[in-house]
Design goal:
CATH class: Alpha Beta
CATH superfamily: P-loop containing nucleotide triphosphate hydrolases
CATH architecture: 3-Layer(aba) Sandwich
Largest sheet: 8 strands, mixed
Bound molecules: adenosine-5'-triphosphate, magnesium ion
Number of strands: 8
Order of helices and strands: EEHEHEHEHEHEHEHHH
CATH topology: Rossmann fold
Distance between the termini: 32 Å
Strand content: 5-15%
Structural class: alpha/beta
Helix content: 25-40%
Length: about 250
């Protein structure tokens, strides 16, 4: 069983049988998404074997943006529990549900959790983790955040060749923590990826203190107010839009 923390703070289990068929808390699509006849959720996995590259920031912010239009479960599959820590600091209820599990057997069954139309999985910075081995095969889409620096990028390229391309799962690299003063580095990284036929998002996520502060305040960037909030929020909105375009064209 996996305990899901609801928007209202209630805790229920969803992987297992106890609440299968019940509605999630979300406002939209909940009635059609709930129940045994609902289609399986789309599973979006955020992955990079390296630490500190923006996986959790990407997972939390995309969960919040997608929750405006669909029912979203964020799965924190990282034993560090950063996404859970972030959401637990929220002064207000968040607009998506969250659960923490690193159990490979449970993660492998996420497609059966039909109360949600989208499940976003935040993963640990460990390529050999059983959690990753369990979620890659059931993923519908893998987003691979990385800073554009050559050392970060080359490590990610090796990971993609070893673990992502062979899986056949649709994916894109997302350049994160991009220094606005050296956008050329990001463009160079996109060119390198394109030459290797590795798909990358056109949208990039720039470095803003706003991202750190929003996490500290327990808020997705969409709900955070302060310096550069608009820029930081719009970067992730563009990412969400690009990912959705991919989903529409499949
Ligand atoms: N675009 C950004 N601008 C500024 N700071 C950022 C940005 N993205 C992430 N950060 C900060 O960088 C740090 C690492 O980000 P995050 O926790 O999302 O990475 P991660 O890949 O999930 O790390 P880990 O592998 O340890 O789980 C955090 O302090 C976060 O606030
Ligand atoms: Mg993380």
């Amino acid at each position: 069983m996996v305990a899901v923390i609801r928007q209202n703070g209630a805790t229920e289990s969803v992987i297992g049988s106890s609440i299968l068929g019940r509605s999630p808390h979300t406002k939209t699509e909940s009635s059609s998404a709930a129940g045994a006849s609902a289609p399986p959720p789309r599973v979006l996995v955020v992955l990079n074997g390296k630490g500190g590259v923006g996986k959790t920031t990407t997972a939390v912010n995309l969960a919040a943006i997608f929750a405006d239009t669909q029912s979203v479960l964020l799965v924190d599959a990282d034993p560090q529990g950063s996404a859970t820590w972030w959401v637990s600091r929220s002064p207000n209820p968040v607009t998506f549900d969250i659960t923490q599990t690193t159990d490979a057997a449970q993660l492998g069954k996420l497609k059966a959790v039909r109360q949600y139309s989208l499940i976003v999985v935040d993963t640990p910075p460990a390529l050999d983790s059983q959690a990753l081995a369990a979620v890659i095969p059931i993923a519908d889409y893998i987003l691979l955040p990385t800073p554009p620096a050559p050392m970060d990028l080359s490590a990610l390229i090796r990971t993609i060749k070893a673990a992502v391309t062979p899986s056949g799962v649709a994916h894109r690299v997302l350049l994160t923590k991009v220094d606005s003063r050296s956008l050329a580095e990001a463009i160079e990284a996109q060119t390198t990826l394109s030459e290797l036929a590795i798909p990358a998002c056109q949208a990039i996520v720039r470095t803003y203190k706003a991202h750190e502060r929003a996490a500290l305040d327990g808020l997705p960037i969409t709900h955070w107010r302060g310096a550069n909030a608009n820029e930081a929020r719009n970067d992730y909105r563009r990412v969400a839009e690009e990912v959705q375009q991919d989903w529409r064209s499949r």
